[in-house]
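call fold target=Glycosyltransferase family 69 protein
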Amino acid sequence: MRIGQGAALQRLHSTLDSTRLLLIRVSRSLASSRLLPVLGLFTSLLALAFAFLWRFSHLLTAVVLFRYIWKSLYAFYQAKLGGAWGPAFPPHRTNFILAVGTIPIWGLGMAGIMLASAIVRRLWSGARLRWEGGKRGGHVNGNGHGRYEAIPLNVDDVEEMEEEDTRRRRQRRESPTPALKTRLLWLGLLVFYLSLALFGLYMWKTYELPIDNRFKARVELANRVPKREGYSTQEKIYIAAMFYNNEGVLPYWITQTTRLIHYLGPDNVFVSIVESNSGDKTAALLESFADTLTSLAVSHKITTHDTTIPRPPSMDTAPPRIEFLIFVNPLVINSYSWEFYVYFKYITRHWVVKWFIEHVENGYGFHQARMILGNPENVYMWDGGACHPWR
């Protein structure tokens, strides 16, 4: 993939000259054919089309690749969060997030294409030179010098080839800098694309806000060197949770809760969990977590397969319905999807997206806050992640 006007013009002239030589050879075999003008026009248009595609191949590749990555991320977004309540996912914010995700991947892809094309072009040039040398009958004598055998050529073809070779040598002598400019431009584009990829890696590593790291060092220490009293303020903490069909969330939740217990101190924590006859592996995961708490000597009560109150035949009557919901409130957590948690916890709180919300959106859509937050006059603070949509 060559970049630069000089290289493109050389390629265009070379393609047109090759087409002209092809027409000369064809004209000798089809001198009396009426299709010769049509064939000449077709080959000329084909040569121009090829030269155009070659000239703008880098731009076309960049546009096609960017569009493909954007469409792929948008399809993934629609599969995970599509159909949610519109005001919680403004289109301009969605487009900004997609752009932030697309640009680094696009930069890495373009850098890979440039490097791969350079390697292929170098290998192809070497193979072509070896093939042409063998085709011309080149041999090596005892002194290590090349010995060539004469082969018969058509005089007209030789004159055309000599004229083309002379024109190319004269053009290289008159303008020796285009090749250098082309290399510098190629190198500059490669550095630019790699910079985009590295910036994406930097954003991936800096998704946490400073406030997220307040206790990180002490939590890490508490898990490396656990103590019964923990590393917090010795307050007694009661952890309560209800689950129903949450096998996708529980592994992460159990891991982070265990880390929290080490920080608070096993002697300072009581864990109470209720599971309401789930249809997946929720109960098994919680029972395994109960074994972990037992090994840590943490006071706990984990109830699984809870069917204490049967579901009433009809949910229309108020007392049976309320009585049932009191005991099976774990159903509430089922409507909150893991995708929404990731979106509001990590994506919208990333410093780039947070900057966009604060300085570009700047309160846009706040007039629709009534359905999320209540009356706007009673709102005094919003951190951007407190209003979660429900399915």
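return ok
The beta strands are 139-140, 146-147, 237-243, 269-275, 299-303. Residues 17 and 164 are 7 Å apart (CA to CA).
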